[in-house]
Each structure stands twice: as structure tokens, then as C-alpha cells.
Sequence to fold (240 residues):
Amino acid sequence: MPTLTPTLLSHVAEYFKVLSELSRLQVLCAIKSGPKNVTEIMAETELGQANVSKHLKILTQAGLISRHPRGVSVYYELADPMIFDLCTLVCQSLEQRLQRQSQQLSDLSRSVFVESEKQV
Amino acid sequence: MPTLTPTLLSHVAEYFKVLSELSRLQVLCAIKSGPKNVTEIMAETELGQANVSKHLKILTQAGLISRHPRGVSVYYELADPMIFDLCTLVCQSLEQRLQRQSQQLSDLSRSVFVESEKQV
DNA sequence: TCGTTATATGGTTGAATGGTAATATAATAT
DNA sequence: ATATTATATTACCATTCAACCATATAACGA
Fold:
């Protein structure tokens, strides 16, 4: 890993901030299978037009997607599919966390059960 | 990659939101080399006490770090070093983006140079 | 017990930002 | 030229949240 200087770190934080909004992740998922224009993205995400447009601008400025006007409509496509590698890693972490929690829960319920047995 | 249902996606967004704050990334970096107590983290990050405490709580609740009281002080440690794999991927993406931009800049300056030559 | 140190919490404030409606711009067709 | 469709922008509101101050809690020593 590169040295995480404060400057670099703030860029990383900014990157994560772009990905920290559900609507924007939905937009990214919408174009995961291939380029789509704004109308198509609106349909798939069920977000408002101005809203989608703003999010697309933010994603474009962050370099996560690229903009391709074609005729009257504008197509957007993923600039770096690595984004979904990030999502995969996060999902794995979430999964592990859930497993730990459910394990703790079952341990807890077992101990409660044992305790109640003692009472009898 | 698992199917990114809206529910799962919102969890992923939440995860990224935790990582989207410079102060919290600084805290994570501070304990990257090993567990540290709150005072040590304050010193390393130069953040206020209440501030650090709140960020530590957020990171703990998100499952990114774990809390270990020892005597009068409380030590925190990374719960999942995978976090820095995320940072590495992001850094690579940022680097690529910068390279593309600098390439475009040099292309631009070259074309400007050629144009000015034509003028002569 | 009392004081001290370490950490956590509550309250407040200001800045950032997502959503939406209204409007602007751009491209195409009639 | 004008209407129409697609996209972008602006203005506004509501919410979120980081930073800070003050205060509370907890652990330990004198």
C-alpha cells in the first residue's frame, strides 16, 4: 500500500464519500451491464431527473464514470469496474460481521437455555 | 459478487459512509500498526477528545474496530485489515486517473504547440 | 472518601448535501 | 422557425453531521 499521507488520505475519503450514497450506488449498478442514457438510468433507479443528473455529474467529476453524448441523449458508462471489487470486499466484510453476530446470538441463547435448565 | 439488492446496497453505502470521513481514516491509520488507547490516538491524529471518542464509537458500531478496556484506558484495534485493501484499490484508481489527466494535459500542450507553429 | 485521570455523552452550531420544482439549454423533427 | 424531447442547472428546503464545549461516568491512587 502507498504511504497514506494526509493529502492522499483526504482524496481517498472523497472517493469513499462519492460511493457512500445509496442513489449513486444504484446508478452505478444500473450501468454495470453496459452504457445507458439518462432516461434509462432514471427508469432503472426510479430517481427523479434532476436528481439523477446531479449524481451523474458527481460520479463523472470523481472519474468513476464517463460521459458520451450521442444525438439528443447522453450515455454514461463505468470508467473503472474496480468499483465492484470494492463492493465485493465490503459485502464479504458485512457477511463475516453478520456471521459473528449470529454466532454470538446462538451462544447467548444456549447459555440462557442452560441457565433456565439449572433453575428447574 | 453477490447480488446487490437495494437492502444490501444500502448497507454497503453505510459502510462507505463510515470510511468517507478524513478524521476516521486518520484514526484507522493510527491503529494500523497495532492497538492504541484513546489518548495515543488523540496524539497521533491531533483531533479533540470528544471528537475522537465519537469517531471511535462510529467505527466500533460499524464493526471496523474493536474495543478493549484495560484498566482506566480503552484500547482500540482494527477488526478487519481488509479496510486497507480498499484504500489500496482506491489509491490505484486515483493514480490511474491522475496519469490519464496528465497525459491529456501533455497531449493538449503538444497540440497547442503544433497550432502555434502553424501560425508562424 | 476524595481527587485525578481517562473516556464517554449531551447539547449546540455551522456547513455540506440530497431531493424536488422550476427553468435553461441543446438537439432533432415537422 | 417552432415544437418537442432529453439533459443540465438553479434555487430552495430539510436533513445530516462534524467539531467543539460542557458535563458525566468510570477506574484508580492517596
Summary: The longest strand of chain B covers residues 65-70. DSSP finds five helices and three strands in chain B. Chain B has a mean pLDDT of 90.
